[in-house]
Amino acid sequence: MYAVIKTGGKQYRVQAGDLLVVEKLEGEPGAAVAFGEVLMLGEGEAVTVGAPTVDGAVVSGTLLETRKGEKVKIFKKIRRQGYRRTRGHRQFESVVRVTSVAGAGKEAKWEGTIDLTPKVILDARARGLGDAAVPATIPAPVEAAPAKAEAAPKKKAAPKKAAAKTEEGEA
Asked: Quick one: where's region Disordered?
């Protein structure tokens, strides 16, 4: 069973067990997410199209993480003027595991398990370092370096002598 849902201004075709990357959703990792705006349901040849949505249809999922997406580069240029500007932008996105598609008296569930292990630990395991290589907490801030010994004060230049006054009329 599959469904076409609308979220974040875009439409997605999903079925139970799919991993879905959508615009940013509010919530912590592991939170349940429900998409109520189901535009179409289908199973084999049987298709139910909503007008505009299918009544009573719900797609449920679990929020796995919220992250930044790929960088989009913005480049502006005015030729022959020496004007060039480069900027970048990374949009927030959420990763959702679809756990069930329900509607029209039917329901399709995903029977797998959801792993919320942080990416740092997964990377350490992939490199063969194991979980022991990953610190359990964020390390404490590094202490400030000891102050340097003060250097000897610089000698001041001797004041300039005033020019000798001459009296007029002396010869």
From this structure: 144-171
